[in-house]
From TrEMBL:
Coiled coil segments of this chain: none
Domain of life: Bacteria
Keyword Transmembrane on entry: yes
UniProt name for this protein: Carotenoid biosynthesis protein
UniProt keyword Membrane, yes or no: yes
Regions crossing the membrane: 12-31, 37-57, 64-82, 102-120, 132-150, 170-186, 198-218
Pfam families, A to Z: Caroten_synth (PF04240)
Keywords from the named record: Membrane, Transmembrane, Transmembrane helix
Source species of the chain: Mucilaginibacter pankratovii
InterPro entries, A to Z: CruF-like (IPR007354)
Amino acid sequence: MERPKDLSITPRTANIVIILFHFVGLVGLMIPATRQLFLQIVPWHLLLMLLVIVLAHKNFDNKFAAFIALLFISGIVLEWIGVHKNWLFGNYAYGKTLGLKIFDIPLTIGINWFLLIYAAGVTMQRSRLKSIFPRVIVGALLLVLLDLLIEPVAIRFDYWHWADNIIPFKNYYCWFLVSATMLFVFEKFGFKKQSIAAPVLLATEFVFFGLLNIVGLLS
């Protein structure tokens, strides 16, 4: 299955869309008058980022489609285990911000797992690390650092919430283990070297959640 060439986008276009929509979202969430509106479009923002990343991927084929489906389904299943069994991450539940849920799990969380793993995987693919295992470990550590920034924002904006408002250490080491496993799967799929779009998405996420944390501390 080959994607028609006229549906692909250049890295430049992808980068502009990623940065522009994160900037607009950042401003919208910072302003109290527009915050509720921008919280309502969070699921659409994730869908847009999915579309951009898919269209920017080189050599779209059945293998890439299978990878997306695998990470999406795995993410949903792992979150179901986390929410309903508390075996992963800790005692938490999802709020309304991430949109439509099935069995209390937002469908967009599967998209989010794909985006984060793909972005970290391509970033490591483009790094100077030549061996799989260093790339997997460093990539997983990057995602744990990102989660440190995401958690306060997620709680504040009702992405999810924790029992007794305490984020357990278990959340972070499970994030590391899950991320490392998924990044290992990414490596085994053996995708050709991808464009800068995915690393730009990862860097933009760090800036986006970092600035929201600063604003939250100052407000």
